[in-house]
Amino acid sequence: GRLTKRVGTPPGGMMSSSMRRLLDPNTHSFIPAEGDSSLPPVVNRLQGEVTYSDLESPISLNQPVIKFALNRNLFVIVKRVLLDCCVNRECWCFSSEGLACVGQDEIVFLLECLPQETLPPKHVFLLINSLYQDAAKGSTVSEMTFTPAMSNNLLNSRDHGGFLYIRTSYQCTAQLALPSPPYLVALLIHRWETPWARLFPIRLVLRMGAEFRYYPCPLVSVRDRPPLYTEIGHTIINILADFRKYSYSLPSVRGLVIHMEDRQTTINIPRNRYDQVVRALNNSNDSVLAFGANLSLAADSHLVCMQSTEDENTSYHTQAINIHNKPRRVTGASFVVFNGALKVPGLAGKSSIVEDGLMVQVPSETMVALRTALRDMRDYSIGCGPNAEETVVLQWTADDTNFNIGVKSCVDGRPLDGVPSIRVHNGTDYSGGTRIIRWTEVFILQCEDSDHSNEPLDISRLSESIARATCLALVPLLDLLSAASLTTLAVRTTIHPDNVGYEAGSN
């Protein structure tokens, strides 16, 4: 029988001599190390067989997508498109294909074309290749994370500091060539904006939305634009985050949103994020408690923190942006700070907008009661103003399920929105003659009528055993599966005392 062996995560399996192309020893990919205009090869696939060729001519507007190969398992779809439906800019659209096989969400780069630019920038290919190599070692990027520039000349400018990754929400994607969900969109960041991208990215994202008048932010990256923030200066975030060593920031609770309405502000906390709330309580001092918030899809507008950048006055002030042609009813905020030092007789609380967040001042005894309520997972209300004209409400809400949005099962197309999953890094590669098969992810589907009387299953060990058996069974068929373009496979197993079975499929 065939042998299985544990290997790192190679850029590709063994190929026949007619399909083999050597990797560049410097980039560890098909991307040539020398020359800014030297691009990776174009890939063509016919009945599972792959051939490579060099790009023969410049890429024109709205011509069919071109598929470049970075290695034998990683590709980039490139399209030049005029986004006349929304931002009216001519852009390069890069979409990765293959990052998922190393446990990384696919990535989209939408880069405004420069005048007279006829070829896609090589730097984007290099970055996607770097993300692939990092993910193969277990280091991935996720929503609202930042990767610094790999050199001082990213996209031929010292002013480009790196990329910040976001999910799409209200943005138009009508003309884009997009990968299968879940995917991230990379935003080009100015080097002066790097501290905010690292420590408090939601502020920067919404500031970009205000700059380009696009809610909540544009997907298009513009090269050589002026910075939106300069010197840090005097900001409330200075006391909540470490701008020197980036060692800490204000705690962010996944799914927590702040809704400001007429005479009431509501802080919604998902019940399945209780552990993150307790961690924030344990890491804060007795008199100050802060939470970073998330972009709320239920809000139609959001506070934005602006900074004066044209003179030496680097002060901050507040604006708001909203969905075009929609009245403001619910305004989102980026953070909330509770300060337990209020000592005004007869005043139970005082709330005010600070930059793009909310400051709530309360007496020390109210702060103690608030902390106790959060630990007990109880709702809590604070009346603010001399006559309690405004109310701040902290309430526990339904579980946060805003993940794996748009993902569908390969077995039967069943939506997997909100279904938790675990990415597998550095797993076993099962090798056939010319191809490998690899287990990359497990989705945990819960059965409503499960029997809780028995000991719970070890999901990790069980799923690994199922994956191993599946891969071993499919190794002899890898060439046939590839020829049929069945490269993503799924097995859904049922483990129950009265029902054990499986279903399999491919997309």
Automatic annotation (TrEMBL):
It holds the Pfam family SARA_C. Residues 178-507 form the Smad anchor for receptor activation-like C-terminal domain. It comes from the Eukaryota. GO terms for biological process: endosomal transport. One of its GO terms (cellular component) is early endosome membrane. InterPro entries: SARA-like_C. Signal peptide: none annotated. PANTHER family: ZINC FINGER FYVE DOMAIN-CONTAINING PROTEIN. This is Smad anchor for receptor activation-like C-terminal domain-containing protein. It comes from Homalodisca liturata.
